Amino acid sequence: MSDSDALWELAAGHGGVYRLELPVKTGPPVEAMLADEGWRVAVVAEVSRTRDFYAALRTALDLPEWTGSNLDALWDVLTDLREPTALVWRGADSYAVARPQRWSQLLEVLTERSTQDPPFAVVLA
């Protein structure tokens, strides 16, 4: 899927997992575009360790520090979302290379959540 197709899907409010070749060369950053379309936007910066991913996710979603750092806790947090939410994960490839098995597991959970309501999208940037 091209960047423009992915952005069209996101603008239409469709959840899913999207890989974008960012930065978008023209126009506002993808986070601003998503916010303008009514998405709650949570940004996770580039990380290469699992504990750093969970820490960044807690910050991005404004979760309490005691939120668990495992796949079950991730699922619970994501299914508790009550508004359309887009998770923009900058430098996701760094994590995928550093932790391929854990990446596969995380991606499975994120993908499964993206099929449910309210809309949830993951933008891998």
Automatic annotation (TrEMBL):
Coiled coil: none annotated. Signal peptide: none annotated. SUPFAM superfamilies: Barstar-related. Residues 45-123 form the Barstar (barnase inhibitor) domain. It comes from the Bacteria. It holds the Pfam family Barstar. Belongs to the barstar family. This is Barstar (barnase inhibitor) domain-containing protein. It comes from Microlunatus phosphovorus (strain ATCC 700054 / DSM 10555 / JCM 9379 / NBRC 101784 / NCIMB 13414 / VKM Ac-1990 / NM-1).
